[in-house]
Design a protein that fits this description.
The complex is a heterodimer of chains A (313) and B (442). Chain A is mainly α and 313 residues long. Chain A contains 13 helices and three strands, in the order E-H-H-H-H-H-E-E-H-H-H-H-H-H-H-H. Chain A has a two-stranded antiparallel ribbon with strand order 2-3. The chains are: A mainly alpha (313), B alpha/beta (442).
């Protein structure tokens, strides 16, 4: 009988999903935000996205070559980092600054820790935090949508905090406001988020816990003093909350793995965001809240380890 | 809502190839290799010599060890050789090669005494002498399972008809074709265990079997049907007890500690045949299936039938490069020799063409937590993987490494294709060894 037997370890069947597909799903889920960003802020925004993505991929490739390890740019995680970074940058940022941010994301945010899965902080947010700390003026120079002359203005959160001026909900919902390329359009992020959760590329507990905490805080404050604190719809739709809750906080490498841990992490993100927004010096707190909870991630994981089936001995 | 356990995965069943094929009896094999060892037990001493004539069902191997069961010849003929042969679960094991005379002369006959008149001990003895072990895969001796410590109160007997492994349809076919025997067998179990209630646990998607069971079990007050949500590894004893009785078997303990005894339907039929007909265990139904075999089916084969004879009976294979698994594709073991014999624990043989296998290389863990979500015993496979890779053996106990039942659900879902089952198995092995060393040191 002509039969060659190959023997592998079980399980002999596996799901068809892989890392590349997971990354591709998240990238696809971000496409609506890319489209609305380009629509509102012009081709300049698209150029910024392209620069960030290509710089991230190139840096990952080069650093892995220098480290003498296998290059893994094919898993698309660097593409995703570049895309996420670009979407949380102001559309008018000089391209050289974007390049710098992308290099920092990959080098400091990811490869220095050992690469994909070993990083403690969300790489895109590390890049953004670096730029915010280094070039605070550039990072807060906002342009109005559809305005090629780049008239500077303030974001809805900035207007609210420093000038007490509100923004219509419809503008927040569609994205016709000043802000980062990918954060302004709530509808694009919600559509992407639905796709993301439907494809199980992110755990629903994190966006749900994050948004619920913000809603609960905002309801409480607004009910307590409606003239001082903005309404719930404003808190949810303005600023980077949706992109943060749906796409940044859900980064698997930097969020807890236990179910209970994910709830704690998500609620923590929500509470810190609200503390910064309402009592801090900055108009927005999504980035720092996520980075702060990223730092607590190992601690949360360690203390929420489930007791095994049948109980502890 | 259907009863279930937490965790687990939904798998493509692939059962359609054989679900509607009645059990066939292939022609008698020309030779059989009957291993002298059952999983876990000790090696049996051969009771026959080379050249001796044996009959079908004749006792040919015995051990005094309490965890071992007897071995019987599965055909009539001549003992050709006693020695080392390939074994599906170990690399090699002592076994008896018997060449058939084609007569299939029986060595057993129906006992005179009806089982109703037998004592518990006499019943257990008949089961032991017939060489009955669990036939779902683990091969645990049935007379041991049915004889828990007398101070433990057993409340329920559960028939495990779940068959959660993809491809395998033996229990499904037995439920349809041998329902009466199963139900009569359950009554024997209830008598031995001295309890009142039995559950038959089966997947809610197995409509035809479920309908037949419901209809036939209606006349037995003590037998209830539990339809469970189709999910892997629902057929694992602990998951089954959790789903049916909502009880968790305490950590590191056997199911009787939760007041339940679980048996596979084929084991029950075998017990029925042993007790009522005097027939020892020398044949069993297996599913021969997979994309690589030309004529899939459910075959009643003699224990010791060689893989190559089964391939020949099943019309041959489609591909030259093949993975042949004894058991299901999730937990079964890939074989490396076509002369390997079917043993008492073989539930099926799955033929997967090599080109259909996912042999992707392991990539970095992205901490997605899917392994945590699906683990039926609530472990953190990703953390254990890291500890094993870094050889932090002493920390593994804090991660409940011993509780892993190696179901493979984590490795199935892992997008980074990390060989989690091997890592967990290695972790278990080393911690066991370290435990042994510590004990010796004390």
């Amino acid at each position: 009988m002509n039969l060659n037997l190959t023997a592998n370890e079980p399980p002999h069947v596996k799901s068809t999903d892989n890392t590349r597909k997971v990354m591709l799903t998240v990238i696809t889920a971000l496409l609506p935000a890319v489209i609305t960003g380009t629509y509102f802020f012009g081709l300049r925004a698209l150029l910024l996205i392209a620069v960030c993505v290509s710089t991230c991929v190139a840096s990952e490739f080069l650093i892995q070559r220098l480290r003498g390890v296998e290059t893994t740019t094919g898993d698309l995680s660097a593409v995703l980092t570049g895309l996420l970074l670009a979407l949380v940058l102001p559309p008018g940022l000089p391209l050289w600054a974007a390049v710098l941010g992308a290099v920092v994301s990959i080098f400091l945010g990811k490869q220095l820790f050992g690469g994909l899965g070993s990083n403690i902080f969300n790489p895109a947010l590390i890049g953004r935090a670096f730029l915010t700390a280094t070039f605070p003026v550039m990072m807060t120079a906002w342009i109005k949508p559809f305005n090629l002359e780049a008239v500077t203005t303030a974001t809805p959160l900035g207007l609210m905090k420093f000038e007490g001026v509100g923004t219509p909900v419809s503008a927040l919902f569609m994205g016709n406001t000043a802000g980062c390329i990918g954060e302004t359009s709530a509808i694009a992020l919600i559509l992407g988020g639905i796709f993301l959760l439907f494809r199980k590329a992110a755990d629903w507990r994190i966006p749900l816990g994050y948004l619920s905490a913000v809603i609960a805080c905002s309801l409480f404050l607004n009910c307590f003093n409606p003239s001082k604190y903005p309404s719930v719809d404003f808190e949810i739709l303005a600023g980077g909350l949706l992109i943060g809750a749906i796409f940044m906080a859900t980064d698997p490498a930097t969020s807890p793995v236990t179910k209970k841990g994910r709830w704690i992490y998500a609620v923590g993100c929500g509470l810190i965001t609200m503390i910064i927004r309402r009592w801090g010096g900055l108009p927005e707190g999504v980035m720092y809240s996520i980075l702060f909870m990223n730092a607590l991630r190992p601690l949360i994981d360690r203390n929420t380890r489930p007791v095994c089936f049948g109980g502890a001995l | 809502m259907l009863k279930t356990f937490t965790g687990g995965i939904r798998l493509a069943g692939h059962k359609e190839a054989t679900a509607n094929s009645s059990i066939e009896i292939p022609s008698l094999p020309e030779q059989v290799i009957v291993p002298l060892i059952q999983y876990g037990g000790r090696l049996c001493e051969p009771l026959v010599k080379t050249g001796e004539r044996v009959k079908t069902g004749q006792l040919i191997g015995l051990s005094q060890d309490s965890l071992s069961v007897a071995a019987h010849s599965s055909i009539s003929g001549k003992v050709a050789r006693i020695g080392e042969f390939v074994h599906p679960d170990f690399e090699k094991a002592r076994a008896i090669l018997i060449e058939s005379d084609g007569l299939d002369e029986k060595a057993w006959e129906a006992p005179e005494k009806d089982y109703q008149d037998l004592s518990r001990e006499e019943l257990l003895n008949r089961i032991r002498n017939a060489g009955v072990v669990g036939m779902g895969g683990a091969s645990f001796p049935t007379h041991v399972k049915l004889n828990p410590p007398r101070n433990k109160k057993i409340d329920f007997f559960v028939v495990n008809m779940f068959e959660c492994e993809p491809y395998i349809t033996t229990d499904y076919r037995l439920a349809i074709e041998k329902c009466e025997e199963i139900l009569s067998g359950v009554n024997i179990f209830l008598k031995i265990l001295e309890i009142e209630t039995a559950y038959i646990a089966i997947g809610a998607d197995k409509k035809e079997a479920l309908d037949i069971l419901k209809e036939k079990a209606a006349k037995f007050e003590r037998i209830k049907i539990a339809a469970l949500k189709p999910k892997f590894p629902q057929g694992e004893e602990k998951c089954l007890i959790k789903a049916v009785l909502n009880k968790e078997v305490p950590r590191g303990k056997l199911p009787y500690e939760a007041g339940a005894i679980v048996c596979n339907p084929q084991t029950i039929i075998t017990v029925y045949e042993a007790v009522c007909l005097g027939k020892p265990l020398y044949e069993k139904v297996i599913t021969v299936t997979g994309k690589g075999i030309k004529k899939p089916g459910n075959l009643k084969v003699r224990i010791g039938t060689l893989l190559k004879d089964i391939i020949e009976y099943s019309g041959g294979v489609f591909e030259d490069e093949m993975e042949v698994i004894f058991g299901g594709p999730m937990m079964g073991r890939a074989q490396i020799d076509i002369n390997v014999p079917v043993v008492k624990g073989t539930s099926g043989i799955v033929f997967l063409p090599a080109k259909s296998l996912d042999l992707s290389k392991e990539s970095a863990c992205i901490r997605c937590g899917r392994c945590v979500e699906v683990c039926p015993v609530r472990l953190l496979p990703l953390e254990i993987n890291k500890l094993v890779k870094n050889k932090k053996w002493e920390r593994l106990n804090a991660y409940y490494i011993s509780e892993c039942m190696l179901c493979g659900a984590c490795a199935y879902v892992c997008p980074s294709k990390i060989p989690l089952v091997q890592r967990l198995k290695l972790g278990q092995k080393v911690t066991e060894r370290l435990k042994g060393k510590n004990r010796d040191a004390k």
